[in-house]
Design a protein that fits this description.
The chain is of the alpha/beta class. It contains ten helices and eight strands. The chain has helices spanning 23-37, 43-47, 54-58, 67-81, 92-101, 114-124, 140-146, 157-165, 180-186, 198-207; strands at 10-13, 20-21, 87-88, 105-109, 130-132, 151-154, 169-173, 190-192. Helix 1 packs across helix 4. 43% of the residues are buried.
């Protein structure tokens, strides 16, 4: 049974390249996986296109019958390699806190494996009210609708599609792999250069 949407303000955020710059950590995790398996992985290319599910990326490097095992091993490697090098993007904590300061709830909805996403948030002191992992693009609408999110903030065209599928306002930031033109074409309602401008925008939105 899904919860009834809350009448208060609920804002969803993507994780990778929206709240956090996980590229340094993800690069290390893939380097360890490549060394263990003997499979060549272009880690610079991998971190240039973060967003889609892990399985989608692994298909570029592993045969079909080895993808699940590679994903499991990557997720196991991740806590010891990827958390510490990853940093909060400018304005990330303040953006989450801005929602809460208005009496709202901040949720993180990400394609990342949820236990590893939780480690990132804890390490960086980003205190979201709700965390849901394992959802990508239109699949994110499931969580956004369940929690009554009116806004979803992300960096990827997949995030824009997720917001639109949930009838939520799509706020996009250009800190990830998609530029302003791509995000606008995908249907983003608001485009910001990064999250430092989000608190002021949110206050204006909430007052309207």
């Amino acid at each position: 049974m899904g919860r009834m949407p809350s009448p208060s303000l609920t804002v969803g955020f993507d994780l990778d390249m929206t709240l956090i710059d996980s590229r340094p950590g993800i690069k290390v995790a893939y380097e360890v996986l490549a060394a263990e398996t003997g499979v060549y992985i272009d880690t610079d290319l991998v971190v240039s296109r973060l967003g889609p599910p892990l399985q989608d990326e692994m298909r570029n490097w592993f045969p079909a019958d080895a993808i699940d095992e590679a994903c499991d091993r990557y997720r196991a490697i991740y806590p010891d390699t990827a958390i510490t090098p990853s940093t909060a993007l400018p304005g990330a904590r303040e953006a989450v806190e801005a929602v809460q300061a208005l009496g709202g709830r901040a949720m993180v909805v990400t394609a990342k494996y949820e236990p590893n996403a939780k480690l990132h948030l804890a390490h960086l002191g980003i205190e979201a009210d709700v965390l849901i992992g394992g959802l990508w693009a239109e699949g994110k609408a499931e969580a956004l609708l369940e929690h009554g999110a009116r806004i979803y903030v992300g960096d990827h065209t997949g995030d824009v599609r997720g917001a639109r599928a949930a009838n939520a306002l799509s706020v996009a930031v250009t800190t990830g792999p998609c530029d302003e033109a791509e995000l606008r074409t995908a249907g983003a309602d608001v485009i910001l250069p990064d999250l430092t401008e989000f608190p002021a925008w949110l206050r204006t939105f909430a007052a309207a």
